[in-house]
Design brief:
The structure holds two protein chains of two kinds.
Chain A lengths: L1 E3 H4 L10 H10 L3 E7 L5 E13 L7 E6 L4 E6 L9 E11 L3 E2 L3 E3 L2 E3 L2 E2 L33 H5 L4 E6 L10 H12 L13 E2 L8 E4 L4 E10 L8 H9 L7 H13 L3 E5 L7 E6 L5 E3 L5 E3 L5 E4 L4 E4 L3 E2 L12 E8 L1 H11 L4 H8 L6 H14 L4 E3 L3 E3 L7 E5 L1 H8 L5 H10 L3 E5 L2 E6 L9 H12 L20 H15 L3 E2 L5 E2 L2 H5 L12 E2 L10 E2 L4 H13 L5 E11 L10 E11 L4 H14 L6 E4 L6 E11 L2 E9 L1 H6 L7 E6 H7 L15 E10 L4 H10 L5 E10 L8 E10 L8 H19 L2 E2 L2
Helix pairs in contact in A: 5-6, 6-9, 7-8, 10-12, 13-16
Chain B lengths: L1 H17 L3 H12 L4 H7 L8 H38 L18 H15 L3 E2 L5 E3 H4 L24 E3 L5 H10 L3 E10 L11 E11 L4 H16 L5 E8 L2 E10 L16 E11 L1 H6 L8 E8 H9 L6 H4 L2 H4 L3
Parallel strand pairs in B: 1-4
Antiparallel strand pairs in B: 2-3, 4-5, 5-9, 6-7, 7-8, 8-9
Helix pairs in contact in B: 1-2, 1-4, 2-4, 5-10
The chains are: A alpha+beta, B alpha+beta.
């Protein structure tokens, strides 16, 4: 919403307040200022001139030589413009003149002819293309009438003062008008609003000679107020009207359209003008469309209508889509002579639905959607007639047709003063409250201990007590409300155990050098192909977004792996040498598809890396993580069948038969899909299971008092025998005396038979009750060797 | 005899003093003090001395022995000391070399901001609560008093799964869940992922983060809200930061306000970053909980009042660290993450 301060001053006396203060105070009372635009564009020495003569330039086809009277002198100026004739009043930039953007005009020679200045277009005077009228678009700006020669152009175009741009919240459609902002200004500075006085000097004939009748659909059209103008002469508006529109960001079209736009900006009421002579019948019938009906709208598009669309018709043919856009068949054109001015109020939802289903949003529709006070229709229509008379656009026909079946009355809201103070934390007197309300034109009367507050119908946003409390609060100033510490029973802030474990896990991973990453919850369905998920895998039972931003963001992830691979590969391509990352995030598991109830949001922890390390580096991280969460006794069971992972370098993580996730190297096929040539290691963990088994309790265990005995053992076994199995076997024979079994060497090569490998373990024996003697350790060693020979065909190496 | 003794002493000491290493010293000890050493041999001749001379010579011999031993031990000490010095000299390293083999990981900056805020609010007695990313239309809009026709409900603003299920557009549904589950009084804060139909550019992301707070109790006022916001803005951005409350509109609060914070770049003096206003605009939205919202959650608005606030974690993180492009937060470039 653009508010030219000059225009605002027509309705509220703020001569003593500068724009900065105005903007600041309005901001604090709830009208949010987006920006302040100065109309002063730094134009200097551009004055009104009159074309005295025009002749062709002898050496240049496209140039003309004008003599221009600028009052003090007559200048020769060369121009390329085509739209000029003798006697036109135009802006002349004199030698030394400054134009917007710092351009300075100098004497210039055009193919042998000196030019002492420049004739200006609106664009050269700093107007945006979006507001320059079509008839001024090509060529020099021709003024609408005679002006004293030599007058500063800034004065004529009103290029001084500021325009304030506001962001109006959707609950205050009444503020989308100069009057609405004048009311806010008056309330903020405690002044009075002066509404324009509407007076029509001369009315002729009778509207009923032009319009037989008006009928409306009561549910969808609250009010239809019509007036007629005759002897209409369509032409350009006077410059004052055009510049006001342009300052408010609206392009002038012709006098009739400009007047309706002017009143819409001024009062907030969208208006429409029909060429009455183009209607087949002199009637207005507001009804819903018939299935299959069509209309060509003003933008020259054929619109297929549905029975939910509300139409303006002449009783037979549609002549407009109510509140959205007029029909081409009743458009105001140069030969229009009789005009019906429509000032109506339509059902908000109906306009919204219509506009949405047609994909047609207009200034009018967006205003109707937010709601228009039906009591505004009359004032606005009368104002249009007044202006039409004032600028000589046409003559006003006597009488009105006002169809207003259910008049909207002012309502009252009960306000409890103690509630005002209670909610705002203030100590205002009832009298003060009344004063604040009255500044907003809200009449408040005491009735016992409460206030009965009457709400003007244009304040569509006020419906409950809290709304009035806000009004008092914002005029008092939220910034003036004193801060008060929270009181009451002290409660301790807590967080769920899941979050406590998450924090712990993150701290551990951070200590291990892994960076936390955050990726989108939605992914591409193609991601499942890239990580080679089987067609019938439950991972592919994903939830689809109805209106995604594109395929890449179209399904809710059931796994964190694709995002992790994406970002690792991206980092690699950026030249990052090594990357350690983890993400703790949700996966979305539907109970049924299509979704009937909310899905299960399952937390998973994905850890990924590439760089110096290998499988054992990431395994180490996972082992430490579980240990720190108090989860012991993990088994890593080789896994060959997960198509995302390398069949010979992957394990499922199991504890007591429960699966906690998978860890391994990414399958070479998947790496090819990602065009990645550095190996990636990844662990995908069921975080909720981890939380379930987390044990944060720690119990002190006495430190050992007796010495340990360390024995090494080296065996040769089949290549496929796992270290894990051997270690388990060793431990099982330890009679509770083995403290640790550590692998310290793996050897394959000349010294060992083919298909075999040599493993060397260091076994630490210790008792917490006594000093061990060699004999008992030897006995255990022997039983270990025996067991390994029997079970794994192991040969002792000497 | 006396002369011999004094000779031995003089000779031994002069040799000791010239000795070059420990083995020479050992040789000298053997040569003079050993079982067949010169002093030992000389003492064997003591028998031939007169009774009067014997004790005198004996005393002298002992003095000589002690003098030699002392000299030997001094020389040994000084050798050891020298060796130690030499060793220390040999061990010189270039301390300007850095060999970083251990790395600590980094929290994602968004997560760091969330944790900082959560901890702050926990200290003020707020409980941290999580809510689902996929929500019902009821919890996300209806229960929050959002008008049926509000444009934020459009397919062009909100991601839908079905007609009644969507990706939450704000963290506010967690307020609804908490009020229904816990009732009044309540102090809670909730942070998490939120989604809006926005194409990706420097300031927009279809997924972003919010943090939301809610207090419901008896006699909760706008003054309490201001206090709470002031405290956390100062905590997050610095004690010299100011806040400015501007009336605004949200369907779920009445009165509603937007909060501006002193420009982080100039601390409120006015600079190009803040267009000379001195304020970082619209950092946070807040207000007193709308009575209809309380009612929708089974809380009596006549008995209880409350306030709620919400803000964009991404925006706050970007303002705080001077990040200009929101995409950096989701690209997870290591070189970016390791800056925090």
């Amino acid at each position: 919403m653009l508010l030219p301060v000059k225009w605002l001053k027509d309705y509220v006396d703020i001569e003593d307040i500068d724009t900065r203060e105005l903007a600041d105070e309005l901001t604090l009372s709830g009208s949010h200022v987006d920006s302040i635009i100065s109309l002063d564009r730094g134009i200097e020495n551009v004055v009104v001139g009159r074309i005295e003569s025009i002749k062709k330039h002898e050496n240049a086809d496209k140039l003309s030589i004008c003599t221009v009277d600028v009052g003090r002198e007559v200048l020769t100026i060369v121009t390329g413009a085509k739209n000029l004739k003798e006697g036109d009043y135009i802006p002349v930039a004199l030698i030394g003149a400054k134009l917007p953007g710092g351009v300075e005009i100098q004497k210039t020679n055009f193919r042998g002819v000196d030019s002492f200045g420049m004739l200006c277009s609106l664009r050269e005077l700093g107007y945006e293309d979006s507001v320059i009228p079509k008839y001024q678009r090509d060529g020099i700006f021709v003024l609408d009438r005679e002006y004293p020669l030599g007058t500063d152009i800034n004065e004529i175009l009103g290029l001084y003062g500021d325009v304030i741009e506001f962001e109006i919240t959707p609950n205050r459609p009444d503020c989308l008008s100069i009057i609405g902002m004048a009311r806010e200004t008056a309330a903020t500075f405690n002044r009075k609003v002066k509404l324009p006085e509407v007076e029509i000097k001369d009315e002729i004939e009778d509207i009923h000679d032009y319009v037989e009748k008006i009928e409306v659909d009561e549910k969808l059209c609250y009010r239809y107020y019509a007036r007629v103008l005759k002897d209409v002469e369509i032409k350009e508006s006077p410059l004052w009207l055009q510049t006001r529109l342009m300052e408010a960001g609206v392009r002038p079209i012709n006098n009739m359209v400009d007047i309706t736009n002017y009143v819409m900006l001024e009062l907030g009421q969208p208006l429409h003008a029909f060429d009455l002579k183009k209607l087949k019948h002199n009637r207005i019938v507001v009804r819903t469309a018939k299935e299959g009906e069509k209309i060509v709208t003003l933008d020259n598009v054929v619109r297929d209508l549905k029975d939910t669309h509300l139409l303006i018709t002449d009783g037979e043919e549609p002549i407009g889509i109510a509140g959205v856009m007029g029909g081409l068949n009743s458009e105001i054109t140069e030969d229009t002579s009789v005009v019906l001015v429509e000032s109506a109020s339509f059902n908000e939802k109906s306009v919204r639905k219509t506009s949405k289903s047609l994909g047609l949003r207009t200034e009018a529709s967006s205003r109707f959607e937010k709601g228009i006070d039906p009591n505004l229709c009359k004032f606005a229509a009368e104002r249009v007639c007044q202006l039409a008379e004032l600028i000589g656009a046409g003559k006003v026909v006597k009488g009105v047709i006002d169809v207003y079946p259910n008049k909207m009355e002012e309502k009252t809201i009960d306000l409890r003063p103690e509630r005002v103070n209670g909610l705002l934390g203030l100590n205002l007197s009832v009298e003060d409250m009344i004063k604040y309300l009255e500044r907003l034109e809200l009449k408040a009367e005491k009735s016992g201990s409460i206030l009965k507050v009457t709400i003007p119908t244009y304040r569509l946003d006020l419906s409950i007590e809290a709304d009035l409390i806000e009004e008092i609060g914002r005029l008092y100033g939220f910034h003036n409300v004193e801060s008060q510490p929270l009181e009451g029973v002290l409660t301790r802030g807590d967080k769920s155990f899941v979050r406590v474990v998450a924090d712990k896990a993150k701290t551990v991973l951070q200590g291990l050098g892994y960076n936390e990453v955050m990726t989108y919850s939605f992914i591409s369905p193609k991601a499942y192909d890239r990580i080679n998920v089987e067609p019938n895998s439950p991972l592919r039972r994903y939830i689809e977004i109805m209106n995604p931003l594109g395929e890449d963001y179209s399904v809710m992830r059931t796994t964190l792996i694709p995002n992790m691979l994406d970002l690792l590969v991206r980092n690699y391509n950026y030249g990052v040498k090594e990357c350690y990352a983890y993400e703790l995030g949700n996966t979305f598991i539907p109970k049924e598809l299509p979704l009937k109830e909310l899905p299960y949001e399952k937390k998973r922890l994905c850890i990924g890396m590439y760089g110096e390390g290998d499988f054992y580096s990431i395994k180490e991280a996972v082992e430490i993580l579980f240990e720190r969460l108090g989860i012991y006794g993990l088994e890593f069971v080789p896994e060959r069948d997960n198509p995302t992972f390398h069949p010979n370098r992957t394990a499922r993580i199991i504890r007591d038969g429960e699966e906690f996730g998978i860890i391994g190297e990414i399958h070479i096929d998947v790496m090819e899909n990602y065009d990645m040539d550095k190996r990636i290691y990844l662990a995908d963990l069921d975080f909720e299971k981890m939380v379930e088994h987390t044990n944060m309790e720690r119990k002190y265990k006495p430190l050992p008092k007796y010495p340990a005995i360390v024995r090494d053992i080296a065996i040769v076994v089949d290549m496929d025998t796992t270290v894990g199995d051997i270690q388990k076997e060793i431990l099982s024979k330890g009679a509770g005396l083995i403290e640790n079994v550590e692998l310290f060497d793996v050897y394959t090569g000349e010294q060992v038979e083919k298909g075999k490998k040599s493993l060397a373990f260091s076994i630490t024996y210790r008792s917490y009750e006594r000093t061990l003697i060699d004999d008992e350790v030897n006995a255990i060693q022997n039983s270990i060797v025996e067991a390994l020979e029997n079970k794994y065909d192991a040969k002792l190496r000497s | 005899m006396k002369d011999k003794l004094l000779n031995i002493k003089e000779e031994a000491i002069s040799w000791i003093r010239e000795a070059k290493d420990l083995s020479v010293l050992e040789d000298l000890r053997v040569k003079y003090l050993g079982k067949k050493g010169q002093l030992t041999l000389l003492l064997r001749e003591m028998g031939s001395l007169s009774k009067e001379e014997r004790p005198v010579m004996g005393k002298l011999a002992n003095e000589v022995r002690e003098a030699i031993e002392k000299e030997l031990s001094l020389a040994k000490e000084s050798f050891k000391e020298r060796l130690k010095r030499e060793k220390i000299e040999m061990e010189k390293i270039d301390v300007t070399i850095s060999k970083r083999s251990k790395r600590l990981g980094h929290r994602h900056p968004l997560q760091a901001t969330i944790e900082e805020l959560e901890n702050l609010f926990m200290n003020m007695g707020f409980s941290v609560i999580d809510g689902p990313e996929i929500e019902t239309v009821y919890n996300n809009f209806d229960a929050l008093n959002s008008p049926e026709n509000h444009p934020s409900r459009d397919l062009s603003d909100t991601f839908y799964i079905t007609e009644n299920i969507l990706l939450r557009t704000h963290t506010s549904p967690v307020q609804i869940r908490s009020m229904i589950e816990r009732g009044a009084p309540i102090r809670m804060v909730s942070a998490g992922r939120t989604f809006r139909f926005d194409d990706v550019d420097d300031t927009h992301s279809p997924m972003f983060h919010q943090i939301e707070g809610l207090v419901v109790g008896e006699n909760i006022t706008l003054g309490n809200l201001k206090y709470t916001i002031d405290v956390f803005i100062k905590e997050l951005f610095g004690q010299d930061m100011k806040t400015r409350f501007r009336p605004h509109y949200f369907p779920f609060t009445e009165p509603s306000a937007e909060v501006d914070v002193s420009c982080i770049a100039c601390k409120g003096k006015g600079c190009p970053v803040c267009n000379g206003t001195g304020w970082s605009m619209e950092l946070l939205g807040c207000g007193m909980v709308h009575p209809k919202v309380l009612e929708n959650c089974g809380i009596d608005p006549e008995k209880y009042s409350g306030f709620a606030f919400g803000m964009g974690v991404d925006r706050i993180t970007m303002v705080k660290y001077g990040i200009k492009d929101i995409r950096l937060l989701y690209e997870n470039d290591n070189r970016f993450l390791e800056q925090f």
